[in-house]
Amino acid sequence: MAEEGKGATVEKPKLDLRAGVWNNGQAAPWDFHIIDHYRYFNFPERARGYKPEQPIKFSHKLHAGDLKMECQFCHHTVAKSEFAAIPEVEVCMGCHSQLVNTEATQKSEEIKKLKEFHEKGEPIPWQKVHVMPDYVRFTHKRHVKAGVACQECHGQMDSMEVVERASSMKMGWCVGCHREKGTSIDCAVCHK
Amino acid sequence: MEEKKHTLSRRTFLKIVGQTSVVGAVGCGNSSAQKVLPLVKGSEDTIPGKSVWFNTTCTECDAACGIQVKTRDGRAIKIEGNPDHPINKGGVCAIGHSALQNTYDPDRIRQPLERADDGSYKPVSWKKAYAAIAKGLKAKGQKAYLGSSQTGALSALLSDWCKAFDLTQIDYSGVSNEAEAKAAELVFGSYGIPTYHFDKAEAVLNFGTDFLETWVSPCEYARGWADTRRSNKPCRVIHVEPRLSLTAGNADTWLQSNPGTEVQVALAVLKVLVERGQRGGADAGTIEQIKKLTEHVTVESAALASGVSSEKILIAAEHLINAKRSIVLAGGASTATSNPLPLMVAANLMNLVLGNVGRTVNIASSRKPSSNSLDEVSKLISTMQKGKLEVLFIDGSNPSFNLPPSFDFIYALKKVPLIVSFASHMDETTGAAHLILPTHTALESWGDAEPLPGVHNLIQPTMKPVFDTQAFGDILLASADKAGKKMGEDFLSYLKDAWQKVHANAATGKSFKNFWLESVERGGFIRRVSANSTAQVSSKAFALDFSSAHFEEKDGHTLVLYPFPSVRSFDGRAANRPWLSEIPDPVSQVAWDSWAEIHPDSAKAHGLAQGDKVTIRNHYGEITVNVLINRYIHKDIIAVPIGHGHTGYGRFAKGIGGNVMQLLPALASKDVGAVSLLSTKVNVTRGRGKGDIVNLQGSDYQMNRHLARTAAVATAVHATNGHAEGHDAHADESHGESNGHGGHHEPKQMYVQREHPLYKWGMAVDLAACTGCSACVVACYAENNIPCVGKKVVSQGREMSWLRIERYYGEAPSEELSVNFMPMMCQQCGHAPCEPVCPVYATYHNEEGLNVMVYNRCVGTRYCSNNCSYKVRHYNWIQVDFPEPLNWQLNPDVTPRSAGVMEKCTFCLQRINEGKDNAKDLGRKVRDGEIKPACVQSCPTQALTFGDLNDPHSEVSKRGRDKRAYKVLDHHLNTQPAVSYLENIKYEEV
């Protein structure tokens, strides 16, 4: 495990507010960024601001922001399953082999990497940013169907060049939103 | 599974604590970074996080039940019964569930192996393995295939393959029901075990068959049996056997007979039937022959020989005569004498004269059991001993283990220059092979089976192979190809070709492609076969020797050895599956062991006491196992389960008990090619060392606490009928759940009554339908990632089973035997004693009536467990590892618990959540029957029901209002459980 994390760079979180993120990603008022971030209390990978280097420099800003692609175009299982699921390599190639096969993209190092993975038939080893503990049952499907916007938990993905963890995802943070929206706060809803 | 060893001295512990606190202050050095790997190629069927189900067929025994395999991310994680299948109708037995652990067995053979000169195995490539096998196939001289004849297309391919390469094909498959099939041939004219319709019978006279546990098709029979037990006219079961088996325990009357004398009882009953004018479908000639046959038998002589009193024999006959439809059965362990046919013939003749044939006994739809030809096996062994056999091909049937050593098979094996094994597991026989080509298990391969005429089952791969193995069919085809005789491309196309015939016979009007796809989707194809055959009694039936069984005996041999198959080890093939070892035997409640069951009087006579080991010895061999003293076993027998005592199987089977086959003579039953199990007497002495039997039943008797209750049929059935109109009308009135059976008035409540606005989940357990088969227990292990902790930990009372089957012999030892099986899971009490004592609020009552347990909140004080009135909470004393790849089976919807955490049943919370989720998608409430916890789903008899108690029309509410319903301990403790039990019913006396 230790080796896997080496590629990750952990920047100090910015102290500004994160637009659209529920309760600014904090579990409680006393759940400051500094505590949230610091290793004394948690792994940096589980703190807001976690921004690991990815095997391919995929830009959400370009795809979701500039090109205005729908989230569900790529994360197509988000309304069907517990998992939003990282799109299959095939999905990336769907566009990049034909539609967007311009000179500029052909030159791009990142797309070359993508094509390499596709040719080898290997999955892309993305670094996980939003990690849920094993004992939590979280279902994307129910949240999306209830009209929770992606941004409320994941932040403004359309402006992120590199994906970063926008919320603490602590239990208090989940429960806070559940309380506010009047949904169940029964332990059995999330704890499995 | 493996227990982590704690060898930590106090000093080291303090050191570590000191260091950790420093590390804790500095911060955690470890990284918790995780990777998330997407699929490379998607498909519409695979959505991450969603299960994919495959309909296929169980191949664990010959019953061939339809099963559904749940896969998640390409791995099979759960087996459930196929509700649309005509045989099992949705249930699966314990062995069926454990097929998963067979596939994920860490001791499976992982790649082709070749034996080096020093006896060790080294991996070889498939190419080399095929080259070696081709050489073997082309070898001149005698060659043979010894093993199971397989099913369906594979069976045809195998015999073609054997013919093509001039191999002598010899059938051998361990436990077999050939005698039953032969006896049916003698009386009914067609070879095969008839289909028995228990649901239509009013009386069943059963000579020894354990049809609720292992005999022929237990799921099917148990369902039929339960259907009549629940009806207005429950069938009366009279069981004749020297040992208290699971079926004997569930019978209304158990007549204990002297071993091997059942045939006398059968003849006496037959005589009475004929004398009382029963004719049924028998013609005058047959009746004459029966009269002649029973000439010298009287009820008194039968009573004298068998030890069953003559009144009881007469009453049993009386019940058969009075019943409109009945069944007479004979088979199983107690009939596997050296001459098993006469008893079965007598039973079949009874069916004939009672007119059951064509009504409850369907001879047109009969099963062909897997066959054994011991004569040919003996011949083969002598060829081997002479060194004349060049090549021997074997499969996983394991004759070295389950053939008595007196056949000298093990020594003969050493004389064969080349032994090729097609087994998926290393066992005693395969361990002697020179070349091993490991095969897929049934969950990984294609295949088919036709257990009953018209029931075409398909077996399909549910996942990619776990190891570098190949399907048996493909190995046959590829090796034939390499040896120069092309027989086909691959086994799938061979199978499809074979199904062209099924397609043609089916005449569905669909193209073959559609027919095939539909069949694969459904798990097979069911065709109605209408063949009305009439019984044709063969004269050979009366030429048999109808005397009681003889036992081989030498000086000092006092007790008859009584080997029997059990649901835990069957014939030995299931011995390396931790689930089956961990669950206790339903009747004896012994876990992780084999045992010798003996009557207290005989034990005393032989100087044995509870907690001893016993050495059972005769001139063939000796074994030493633990003693289990049981007052309900016949004084003349010592019963030992088959299938334990492996020496070369897997890690879980190692060091468990002894192999009872070692004591048997090299004797095939007369006219039948199977090992004669009940054929010898043994010498019994106290064994060396202290016994270490693990018995999980705390008390054999209920001590008048009325936990598992039994009502007489006369009162119970009447009451159930009465309730239908009388009680339902009051459903809406607030009689409430606490209005249990105790007859007490609504008690004054000290605590605030909880409200359950939307759902209130509850369960009902019909003890009249529960056979104690333990399928639910294994289903629970599979669904909830329950660890198997091993013999030592279980012996400390620390088993993790969330659901257990309690077995009681009655209220008090002084009373007459009345066996009760009672599934005991968390009762989800309304006023749970465990909740208020939790200091960290890890367990609490939720709005849906569940007693929720939050595992990562638990700090392990164990107060809740101490306060639980039902002993259903289990504490993780040790961290248990699931050795790779057993951990592949873990259910991702349930978190595995770690050491120091209390765990328990929550009615499969993950399934409730899934059910609610699906209902929410459709914008409605959960409908009755949509959510089924693993135990409820798996129950072969549907004894368990789950549902919403808020809905007065749900099945569980209806059962909860039944007059038979009561709640365990509620009248003492006012715990207000959400589980209702329905009293068992039994006929009072014969």
Percent of residues in beta strands of chain A: under 5%
State Rg of chain B.
Answer: 29 Å
At the third CATH level, what is the topology name of the domain at 710-728 and 755-986 in chain B?
Alpha-Beta Plaits
- Count every helix of chain B, treating DSSP H or I runs of 4 or more residues as helices: 29
Description:
The complex is a heterodimer of chains A (192) and B (990). Chain A is mostly helical and 192 residues long. Chain A folds into two domains: 18-67 and 79-85 and 129-190, no CATH class; 87-125, no CATH class. Helices cover 36% and strands 1% of the residues of chain A. Chain A has ten helices and one strand. Chain A is elongated. Chain A starts with 32 loop residues before the first helix and ends with a helix. With 990 residues, chain B is α/β, with parallel strands linked by helices. Among the domains of chain B are: 182-357, 3-Layer(aba) Sandwich (Dimethylsulfoxide Reductase, domain 2); 559-690, Beta Barrel (Barwin-like endoglucanases), CATH 2.40.40.20; 710-728 and 755-986, Alpha-Beta Plaits (2-Layer Sandwich). Chain B is built from 29 helices and 40 strands. The model of chain B is unreliable at 17-30 and 721-743 (pLDDT under 50). Chains A and B meet through helix 4, strand 1, helix 7 and helix 10 of A and strand 2 and helix 26 of B. Strand 1 (126-127) of chain A pairs antiparallel with strand 2 of chain B, so a sheet runs across the interface.
